[in-house]
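SAMPLE LOG
Freezer: B-3
Tube label: C17
Construct: single chain, 222 aa
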Amino acid sequence: MQDRTDPVKTSLHFHPHPEKKLSIRLMKVADVLFSRVYHRLTVLTPPRLPATGPAILVCNHTSGLDPILIQSVCKRVIVWMMAKEYYEIRPLKPFFQLLEAIPVDRAARDTGAMRSALRALQEGRILGVFPEGRISTVKGQLLPFQTGVAQMAIKLKVPVYPAFLDGTQYGVSDMVPAFTHRQEAVLRFGPAVEFDRSSTSRESLENATAKLRAAVDALRGS
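STRUCTURE (predicted):
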């Protein structure tokens, strides 16, 4: 009998090489034009994500536009964990499904989303997470991080890379104005964060989470 308490045992599977799909290639071109031409995205330090294998990318959350901006400069397709209410927006849902985004029910402890995230990492994908759990409404304010990223990273021994976004899109939580109003954004990436992976005790998770938050915050003025 399948152990339903094990967060990695699930029938969900992710495409091993989505970058090879024609539909993804076309979306990539559209994303670059949308983010770098329509919106004015400036990348001050390039991404350092591994060419192969699993990893987690964490970033501060400034707007509903954030995943689109970040993906436009990353060669590998990122599996984003995103709020279910955004995922269910009818005109955008087919694109989120194509990108294999993971909807998260923020009104409850969504163990299904956690299982999907672990599966994506287990299958060698890059997982994108906004550990603040919600969009910051104050420019430059970094909210407390949730411990889920540290828990996944320790459980599966995967590296975690920080990124920091700034720009005029800060606090624009509604998808429509975030997408349609031209924004000027700045993006920085950092190296993998080092932290103790010997335990998943509450203290260890909190210490690891503090280091992840500090790594993201350090990119603010780099």
